[in-house]
Fold each of these.
Amino acid sequence: MISKLAIAIAMGAAISAAGGALAAQDTSQIPFPEGYRSWYHHHSTVNLAGHDPAGNVGIQHVYADATAREGLRSGKFAKGATFVVDRFAYSEDANHALSQGARKVIAVMVKDDDRYPETGGWGFQAFKGGDQNVRAVTDGGIQCFSCHIPLADNDHLFTRGE
């Protein structure tokens, strides 16, 4: 029979090993996406109040660099393919029209199967309020990736095609 101490030691080792794997997946080097608004504008969506996760409520514009755009065409994303989601708050006026408000975040996804194996080959970073000095992702992209897990059949992307 396995003792409680042995189980505790085994669990501690497993948690430590997992922490080491996540620490090795460093997304802090993902750069702020200078000039992304001149990239291909793939689409815009509005996530209304009640959307899950609530932090993603807002108007969002999705941009793809040239490598990501080629991936949208071919269905295969090469190393370095980059998407940017530029998310804004919104307000609704008395006539039920939505208006774009303050920028909430600029989120970045970069394809690199070698660097980001824990998150489907995608590195995640986000810049709060669009400030290149205020990084929001501190967990190796695990929280971001949790929403992308069900999309494995589409390389973990919400978007399809061009």
Amino acid sequence: MVMKRRPGPGDTAKPKRSAYDKALGLLARREHSRKELKTKLRQGGYEGEETTAAIDRLGDQHYQDDDRFAEVLLRSRIAQGYGPVRLRVELKSHGLADARIRELLDETEVDWDASAATQLRRRYGSAGTSDPAERARRAQFLLRRGFAAATVRSVTHADVDEAADDIP
């Protein structure tokens, strides 16, 4: 059994990293949004002014860029088979502006109908169904993945409520 010893008065403690160093380390692993970095730094015990200065400095040096973060996130989530409604919500949660989210989604050249059909085939196989309950189950699957009601309706031929598209 290994016992940890308490630091004594002669021991030198490891100095706390600066907010800049901590944020740079986070960005070295993957892209982060400004909002995400700010949250992680505050959870790490860094003060607001130091956090803001560190994130601004990283932005000035082009180490942190919300547009680049959003593009990487979009590519990743589209490849995972998520729809535009889910993408919009996720980008909004990272603090991106609605206008910028609309621009980014418009710039993506994705055939959402084909993507939804691919997800259906992946999940349920290529066999269609005439059972209304099964069609509804498949439609709910696509709605949970973030596809628009019109897309879901065209792919599954199921009755889908338009309220599913009203997510802010």
Amino acid sequence: MSFGQRLKRIRNHRKMTMKEVGIKLHIPERQADIRMSQYESDTKKPRKDIVEGLSNILNVNEYALDNPDISTNYGAIFNLFEYYFTYGLHPVKIEDKVYLEVDKNLSTDSLTKSLSDWCDEYEAFQKGDITKEQFIDWMLKYPEYSKHFANPLPRKE
């Protein structure tokens, strides 16, 4: 999801207008909604200080607005939060283990099939039916080796 889409979703959640947010950012009133519209449509990328100001005005962590770095814990969890909004992905705790579940009402059938493919390939790797190299190759070339295509990975004999 783009910065602008996140900004709009959060602004609407806070029940604020573009003009209200822009004015709080100290943008002149006659330009406030135009500038915010540019940010929300991704035609203008805000500077870091503007992102900080928006996060303060909207009372959110900057990661909630910006495209987070998935190599960090906060970046990874904020990406998972985006999957909640997009696909209904949510945590489920079973016997003190946390699993991620997709809400079938929000998910697409193709996403469910893709996740099932991934699970099947991971299980095949764990059982030793395919090598780690084959498993990684499957991920890197997805969907080429997906069950939904004609070239599945050959299994070890």
